[in-house]
Structure formats: C-alpha cells, structure tokens
From TrEMBL:
Compartment(s) where it occurs, according to its Swiss-Prot or TrEMBL record: Mitochondrion outer membrane
The enzyme's E.C. designation: 3.1.3.16
One GO term of the biological process aspect: programmed cell death
Role, per record: Mitochondrial serine/threonine phosphatase that dephosphorylates various substrates and thus plays a role in different biological processes including cellular senescence or mitophagy. Modulates cellular senescence by regulating mitochondrial dynamics. Mechanistically, participates in mitochondrial fission through dephosphorylating DNM1L/DRP1. Additionally, dephosphorylates MFN2 in a stress-sensitive manner and consequently protects it from ubiquitination and degradation to promote mitochondrial network formation.
Name the UniProt record assigns to this protein: Serine/threonine-protein phosphatase PGAM5, mitochondrial
Chief place where the protein resides: mitochondrion
Pfam families per UniProt: His_Phos_1
Organism for this UniProt entry: Pongo abelii (Sumatran orangutan)
Amino acid sequence: MAFRQALQLAACGLAGGSAAVLFSAVVVGKPRAGGDAEPRPAEPPAWAGGARPGPGVWDPNWDRREPLSLINVRKKNVESGEEELASKLDHYKAKATRHIFLIRHSQYHVDGSLEKDRTLTPLGREQAELTGLRLASLGLKFNKIVHSSMTRAIETTDIISRHLPGVCKVSTDLLREGAPIEPDPPVSHWKPEAVQYYEDGARIEAAFRNYIHRADARQEEDSYEIFICHANVIRYIVCSIPPLLSAGAFVLLGS
C-alpha cells in the first residue's frame, strides 16, 4: 500500500483566518503496518508517449521519484537477479517523511493600487499571530518556511516566524498568486486574459514539481516545512493529487 500513500493530506484550521493544509508525504520504502506492496514495472516516462494511468487510477510515479522508475531493470545482473534489484530499490527508496504545511496569507487590503500597497489589515495581522501561536504549540521542529514574494505573504511570514525562532525563511516568485487554469464552470467576477493562464499555469506547475514530492533518498530524518502562499496556488496543488481527495484523507487539527 505504500505506493498508494505517497502523499497524505490533513486540513488544518489555524487561527480562524489563515487557511492551512498539511501534506504528510508517506514515502515509498518507509515501512507501514501490513507491509509494502510488491514492486511492479515502472510506468513509461511522459516523453516516451506510453500509456498513462487513466482518471481515478493512482500513478505511483506521480513525482517522477518512484524507485523502480530510476533503475534500468534491463541491465540487472542475470546471476543475482531479484537480489540485485531489491538492493538497488533500497538505495533509491526514501527513508524519511516530509510534512508540508500549506498556509494562505492573512486578510489584506484589497483596494491597494499597487501590489506593495496590499498590506495586511489589523484583522489579518491578528490572524497571522494566532496561526504562529498554533504552529508553535504543535511542538514540531520546523525545518524552513518557504513563502511567496508578494507583500501580503511576506508580512504573514514575518509575523508567523516570530513564534518559530531559528527557522530559516526562503522567498520565491514561484509561489506568487496567479491564474493557473481556467475555472470550469466559468465565474463572472474573475476573468483573466488567456495569456495569464498560459504564463501563470507553467509557473505554478513548476512550484508544484519543485516543492511537492516525496523525500529524497538521502534525507535521513523526517522534515516539517511551511509554505505560505495564496489561494489559487494551494487549490492547484491540492487538486493536482485527486486520488488523495477521493480517499478522504483529511484530519482537522483545530482552529
């Protein structure tokens, strides 16, 4: 079952304002109760044009880090056979779990003419304070905070980070708000130009590929990472992993 549990979700209501989602990446190769599923042939790479899993079918190589897909099985030693394959699989299997907290920025002044003028409201600052307190109360050793480079995300990060001393902060343009995909059905109050979907979609997909994946095989200990960004970015990330949504793997951590 480890193949089907590559990423497990829990919804977190933190501080009544800053919405948050927790992703717990249960990595392939990390022992689970009942044992792992038997290894199966790797899915063909996307560029090869081979058949891909259909809708509703879990793709074990969703992050292109499936151990079996990283091994050239055609070159395995004929004499050692399965023993060598198992040894190579162990080398590529992740040994740790990544816990990823996705947090939307707090309430901000939407009437600012420039992006730098869209600062947090008094309520938004209170929301961020409470979110920081809630995160600190979890007693976890957070590794880093990665945040959008937009003003409202920076201010939310600065307030939250006061409650998590020593945790490094990293700013990135990849997590900036945008229009990753055209809404279906359409909405009347939000109609970006077609070129915006084209540009923002590629950028936010790059953020997904860069940040949402199972732990690297070289990672020895579990990690706890906070990502502070925007509603559309979080929606895109969550909706990019539909098998987990249908599995109903959600847990409320409190508000």
